[in-house]
Each structure stands twice: as C-alpha cells, then as structure tokens.
Amino acid sequence: MSHLFPTYNRWELELVSGKGTVVKDGEGRTYLDFISGIAVCNLGHSPEVVKEAVKEQLEKVWHVSNLFPITAQEEVGGLLTEHTDLEAVFFCNSGAEANEAAIKLAKKHTGKTKILTFKQSFHGRTFATMSATGQEKVHSGFGPLAPSFDYLPYNDESALEGIKGDEIAAIMVEIIQGEGGVIPGTTAFLKAVEAKCREWGALLIVDEVQTGIGRTGRPFAYQHHDLNPDIVTAAKGLGSGFPVGAMIGKEALTASFSPGTHGSTFGGNPLAMAAAKATLETIFVPSFLQEVEDKGAYFMKELKDKLSAHNVSIRGNGLMIGIGLESEAGGIITDLRENGLLTLPAGPKVIRLLPPLTVSREEIDQAVAKVEEALGKATAVV
Ligand SMILES: *Cc1c(COP(=O)(O)O)cnc(C)c1O
User: Has the keyword Amino-acid biosynthesis been applied to this entry (predicted)?
Assistant: First the structure.
C-alpha cells in the first residue's frame, strides 16, 4: 500500500520539471499548466528572481526563530502594507493559518464571539477554518464544529438584514469564491457586507488566499470594489511556491496581538521572506499588474467568443476564470489533461483556469483552442 494517508485523489501524472507555463511529466510529455499549483506559481515555474533570492539567503542563514528580529519580515511587511490600506502583518505558513490568525484576532479585539461566513466558501482545513468554511462536505464527520460560525447565502444582500449584530466579531468573505465555483462577489453585495460590519462594530476580514498577489490584476481583489477591510489574508501566491502566509491588518488591531497571544515557529522564516520579497517586487509593479488585467480580459473575451455555441457561463476576474457547465466537469478536465492542458475543477460543474500571471497570449490562444475542442467533443458524444 501507499505510505500516505489518502487525503488526495491523485492524478496518475507526476510532474518532474517546469519552466514558465510549461511542465513536463516523467515520460517527457509537456503540458500547459493552467493550475499553477492552485494559484501558487504566479510567476510560472522556476522563476529566476525567486530562485536567486532563495539561493542567496540559503547561503546566509535558513532559520533563526521569531525571538530574533528578521529584517526581511519588515521589508515584505512594507510591500504588503504599501499595497493595501493596512499597517501590520503577521507571517505564518499557509492560508488556513492566516485565517486562523484573523479569527483569533477578531475575537480578541472585539470581545465578541460570532463570525459570519458564506455558503460555498472555503477558508481552510484546520479546525477553526474548516468550521468557518460554509460547505457540509468539508464538515462531515468532524462535529461538533468550532463555535461560532453562521453561514449566509453569498451575493444576497437581503440575508444580512435582521441579524442581531451585537455578538458578531467579524464577517469573513472571499471576493471571488474559489473552491466554491469561481463565483465573483458583486460590488453591491460586498459593500453591503462592509456596511454591516461598520454598523455592528464587527471586523471585515477578506480572505484573499486565492484572489490576492496580483491574480486579478490588482495587488488584492478587494481593490476592484472600493472596500476598506480591517484584515486581509494571503498565502498561495505569496512565495511563488515557498510555503508562506500572511495576515495583514489595521494598526488599531496591533494592541490585541501583544507578545504571547499568537505565534508560529516557522512563520516568516528567512527563506520564505526571500521568496516573498522577490515575488512581490516583481508582481506589485503597475506595468506587470496592467498586463495581468489585459491578458485576463483577452482570455475572457476569447473564451466567450470561441465557446459561444455552448451553453456555458464564463466568469471571474483577471487570470482567475471559471467555465460553468450544465453537466459534470470531470470528464472534460481529464480530456484536456490528455490533450496537454492542466485545469482544475471548482465544484462538480466548473472548470477553473488559473494560469501563471506570466502566461503569454499565445499560450492563452492554445488553451482556448484546447477547451473549444474538448467541449466540442463532449457535446458531440451526448
Ligand atoms: C486555498 C485556500 C485557503 C487555504 O489555504 P491553505 O494554504 O491550503 O491552508 C483558504 N482560503 C481560500 C480562499 C483558499 O483558496
């Protein structure tokens, strides 16, 4: 038997090397990677700037503990706060840990106990973040869940009415629900969520673990909606594949995370900071972000044009795109893989496309042609 817990249904395809958007399997077959390690390899595979930064740090010191000052944390913290309306960062190792920090901080800071999240949301697999996730299949077998989360319907302003606000510490929301099916939040809905937070004295926590780090053509996706969150969480793309997460918050919250209240042995370690610094210095540049926005718009338009004969819903923002189908997506995703394009499901009926932000227009054209072909084949069979 395998030596591993079977927590993942793995594809029979081991990727042994990668450069840019292209990855290679053990038999030398190449694929266009429109998964990017699930929105992680935003600079493509093996980006030189990140590789060089990590190598350089590797020669100096790998790990020292947060008992010591780590200058690179200040530098990455500076990049994150400069590109948000926030002032302070806590570094950890994953998206779930960033959300854990946010949940703890919101309770401590407000002195209140309840957190509202949304149906079909995804916030992580630790006990608290699993409990925050609004999907029964994620909770199954693990009850009773961590108190106290309530799940409201997403994109439904009316569901926010009639709630007793005095126990609510925070509302945690994704700007585009990723795992839940690539569902973009509307500005009206997101602004209504923010207004309720203000009315109730609750914190607005935006989970940007998937949508952040330039994925939608802005440093963070909330910046498309004129929001002013109290806390933003990031991870996936932050270190270009090096494990690192961050919770970024308002200065007023810093007093609630005093020494001894929270911590992480590895969080913000020098190697992770070297990777994050090189990543952010490349992505948080106006011309780079403009390219992401332009390529995303081009990709979306090409998909809409080329797939117009099919009954599909194409949605997303920047280079986070979902193709909603009327039937199961699994067969088409397998077909695409066999035809050299790696894509991801998001729920049972959605094909999710998350290419590296460095993807070329030619690669987008190739991907669109493969999707068109796969959908054509699927309809022909029916
Ligand atoms: C992936 C994801 C997480 C969990 O991140 P991990 O690094 O796997 O813990 C949390 N929230 C969102 C929106 C995600 O997409």
Answer: yes
